[in-house]
Amino acid sequence: MRRLTTSALMFVSVLGLVVTGAFAQSTDDPGPIVVADIQGPLDQRGLDFLTETVQTPDIQLVILQVNQPGIASGDPTELYEAILASATPIAAWVGPIGSSTQGGAAQILRFAHVTSAAPDVTIGKLQPVVCCEDSSLPTGLRNIDPALDAGSVRVTEPIADLIDSVDATIGEFMGRLDGLTVETVAGPVTLETAELVEVDGSMVNVASVEIRFVKPGLTSRFLRLATRPEATLFFLVIGLSSVAFEFYAAGVGITAGVASLALFLAGYGLAVLPMNWFGVAAVLGGLALYTADFQRSSLGPFTALGTVLLFFGGANWVRSDQFGPQWWAVLLTVLAALFFFAVALTTVGRSRFATVTIGREHLIGKVGEALSAFDPDGMIDLDGAKWRATATRAANIVPGERLVVEAVTGVVLDVSPVDR
């Protein structure tokens, strides 16, 4: 009995040592590092993602990669307050090399415990916080130079109350943070982020803890495809051009799905971006002029004016000094629309309506005279005979106008004006 009791006591002692050791090991584990990666102007979905990342439990450090041109819409107050109230150190790194951040996105630097930037990044235009809105800020941890509210600075070295260090990569920044003690609302936290190991005879810093790169959810990433101004312009032009294709050249099919998807994304972009509605009206007017010239089966002054309106509207797409569409992206979108209406849509339309009926091929190419106005159907005199005709690719045909036969469908001639 005594031997059994002694064995039981030894077992309990060993078990206690194992549990204590395991607890000590888990206590000593500094925890993983979470890196938030989000691109493009921030909207409320993007702000919510960053706030949730800052509030992630059981981690050692959060690094916010700041390279957004600004905040297009939404309220960033909850994000700023979450950073200030975080017991976990929050670091902000502006990069990669040559990028820029402005407005409310750059204001994250005011609240972060530790900041860094890659060489040659541009930081500035801190006001307005949310594009085209008056917003107030909580009191931050740094007193950033008020000159940056309207101006900007290119980072080449650390800047007091703005950038603590200059690091070319986020990995280099994490290595620099190792051993740093950061003051949070819960007290000082000493970071353990890297360790020295020998690689090919040289000592290099490698991550000593788990690194988690997190992105917004799939739905948010899909919707945020349209948060860049040039992307919203592209989706709107593609969507409306596809609608014209379906209406004039083909039945409902794949193109209708493309149009629906593009217009859905364009609608999201129009809802979250600070739109210049005069620019939007100019783009819509340009597409309308393209359609009018397509109906007339000609490339005339409407096409030229439509091209000018498209580029003007695209270049003035948003009301923002912090971010706007890239001029080259606007130009490519305009050229794509011009090619689509002038070449692709015209070619496909002609091929669809050029269904030849056996026995009447000799009529194709002949010129007759309109006997009535077309809307789009009417009557035509062809070699002294009256024929029913339709003009689906031209408008405003009046009696006496010369028409050429493009195709024959049954006993109906497909015609278009000769002199347009």
UniProtKB/TrEMBL annotation:
InterPro entries, per the entry: ClpP/crotonase-like_dom_sf, Membrane_assoc_protease, NA-bd_OB-fold, NfeD-like_C, NfeD_membrane
Keywords: Membrane, Transmembrane, Transmembrane helix
Topology term for the membrane: Multi-pass membrane protein
Domain NfeD integral membrane: 234-343
Organism listed in the record: hydrothermal vent metagenome
Entry keyword Membrane: yes
Location(s), subcellular: Membrane
Residues annotated as transmembrane: 299-315, 327-348
Domain named NfeD-like C-terminal: residues: 361-417
GO cellular component, one term: membrane
Protein name from the UniProt record: Uncharacterized protein
Location (main, coarse): membrane
Pfam families: NfeD, NfeD_membrane
